[in-house]
# Entry
Amino acid sequence: WINSTCVSDVVGDDFEDLVERLQGELAMPVFCSGPKTNVMMKAFSIMIEKYRGGGVGGREPELLPRNTINILGFPCLEGTDELLGLLDNMGVKINVRMLPEIWFRDMEKIAGARTNILYPVRALEELYSAALAGVEADCAREPAPYGMEKTKNWLSAVATKTGRTRQFNAVWESSFGGV
# Structure
């Protein structure tokens, strides 16, 4: 029996994947409990679906410039403000940032961005599906930006999606070139 906490989700560990791999290797059943099995996830998903009502307020959303993104599922941790500051320095604008927090005013704006950057945690997939139902935008699930190499890869991927590769290179070099 594996019991995960939200900490494993925050750092990007995928306990469901571990359970699947162990299930194939062990001659006994393997179970996992944790945030994914939390009934609150289902409640939030239903709430989002009811609010969205199959569309975004019945209006066509304003399609925003390519460098504008939605960020979903990213926890508010130490270093998050700095990461968002690097995006801003690259000229990447954030349209909506939600989950785990949910602000209904953001639900009306979410369809405007051309790219959704999703925190790669299976526990939030149901919420992502509910929040993005009917939204025609690219979704990216890059490995969580923890450590220099993963942060660089994550920022580079966002830069590629938003057409800001040149700006990423300049920001990375000015911020971390000597590291």
In short: The first helix runs from residue 6 to 10.
